[in-house]
Amino acid sequence: MPERDLFTWTALISGFIQSGDCFGGVKLFEDMRRDGVRIDDAFIISSAIGGASHLAALSAGKQLHGLGARLGYESSMIVGNALVDMYAKCSDICSARAVFEGIVTRDVISWTTMVIGEARHGRAKEALSLYDRMVLGGVKPNEATFVGLLYACSHAGLVQKGRELFDSMIKDYGIKPSLQHYTCLLDLLSRSGYLSEAEDIITSMPCQPDEATWAALLSACKKHGNACMSVRIADHLLGLKPREPSTYILLSNTYAVNGKWGCVAQVRRSIAEMEIRKEPGYSWIELGKECFLFRAGEAPHDMRDEILRLLDELMMEMKKRGYAPDTSFVMHDLEEHEKEQQLFMHSERLAVASGLLKSVPGTVIRVVKNLRVCGDCHTVLKLISDITHRQIVVRDANRFHHFEGGICSCHDFW
Predict the structure, then answer these.
(1) Considering only Cβ atoms within 10 Å of each terminal Cβ, which end of the chain, N or C, has fewer?
(2) pLDDT value of residue 334
(3) 349: closest CA among 383, 311, 303?
(4) Which helix (H) or strand (E) segment is 293 a member of?
């Protein structure tokens, strides 16, 4: 193609991002800028911001924000909505809120994006307050709005408020609950200990439960130590996905909580016999304008000695404070010291250590992980935040965790 105009570039960039190649889409945007193409359309900037959002690339997102501001698009709804989503997904919820408040005209997408952002960061009070403002302002909530609200209630234990919102969605707005709404409601009930009610709903709801629905209930069974229900729920889950490692781990840990060590051994034998392998964990962190990827058990050669030395020092301090590794999160049949070594080399710990070594002192350390943070790493990150007096934000497959002063925003239930 001899010459590409703005329309052509927009189609290419949007195509890359919509197909899941966000890195390619952001790179194309940079190529377009280098070609000197004049940007006089807010849509292409919002598309590029969307790419940065999915990559959790805060530095790139900030640069795009600055470009949008220089071109006069900062207060436009389409760019503003994209920026709110980007900052929320890049773990900077305060900047997301600042951009939201600066949008001149807000639509249901603006409000819903902010509600979901607050909910994912564990800020239920703020999410519910936004909803009240939204309704008072005459903006009608949609299906996604209620997913965010129910998620907020679930992670804050607001059972009655969640029930009211679920009923209001149907009665006041005529919205038919989807599987996602039912999953949020079940998560809310089961997290708060209403396991029987949650099981009744899952077996009688009009839509077919999927893996996420059963998994929410199984996770709660482990928390509340209900081994009998765990077995029933695990059967459903394994029927949907027979080789899912997390199901076996949750079932095994539930048995362990109840002291049923024979059952624990049986589950572990099944894992070994079926040669089930957990999806490899990896985490990444932005340091300056560079992004560093860490895989479980691996540290970059040029940083390896520094990272391991720092983790050793932190481990000694944590053990002085009473920390003992919880090796139940290691699937493989290994010696105890080998299990501890596997936990020691989990990817999020390596990423956080690199952040402590390379970032500006006092700044927030932001890490993204592809899987759910394991319980032992969650304990370790709380302790590290207290020992180093640093705020650590981890976005895992489930939610955001804000670690500060030895406390996590999820209150140890995620």
Answers:
(1) N
(2) 60
(3) 311
(4) strand 290-295
Angle at 9 between CA 104 and CA 107, to 5 degrees: 20
Strand 290-295 relative to strand 407-408, pairing: unpaired
pLDDT tens digits for range 216-261: 888 888 788 788 888 888 888 778 777 777 777 777 777 776 677 7
CATH topology of domain 1-105: 1.25.40
Count other C-beta atoms under 10 Å from residue 321's C-beta: 10
Question: What is residue 207's three-state secondary structure?
Answer: coil
Contact 330, 339 (CB under 8 A): yes
Share of the chain residues as helix, strand and coil, in percent rounded to the nearest 5: 65, 5, 30
Burial 240-250 (b: 16+ CB within 10 A, else e): eeeebebbbbb
**Residues of the chain above pLDDT 90, percent:** 49
Helix (H) or strand (E) holding 142: none
**Helical spans, DSSP H, in 258-323:** 261-273, 304-320
How far is residue 146's CA from residue 197's CA, in Å, rounded to a whole number?
Answer: 21
Domain boundaries, the chain: 1-105, 282-408
- The two beta strands, 282-287 and 290-295, are antiparallel
**Token couple for 367:** 């890490």
d(CA 343, CA 355): 19
Distance CA 198, CA 222 (A): 14
Q: What is the dihedral of CA 402, 406, 408, 409, to 10 degrees?
A: -70
Looking at residue 4, its amino acid is R
Taking only the tens place, the pLDDT of each residue in 118-153 is 999 989 999 999 999 999 999 999 999 999 999 999
CB-based burial, 126-161: b 16+ in 10 Å, e otherwise: bbbebbeebeeeebebeebbbbbbbbbbbbbebbeb
Both structure tokens of 108? 């249901």
* Distance of alpha carbon 130 from the chain centroid: 21
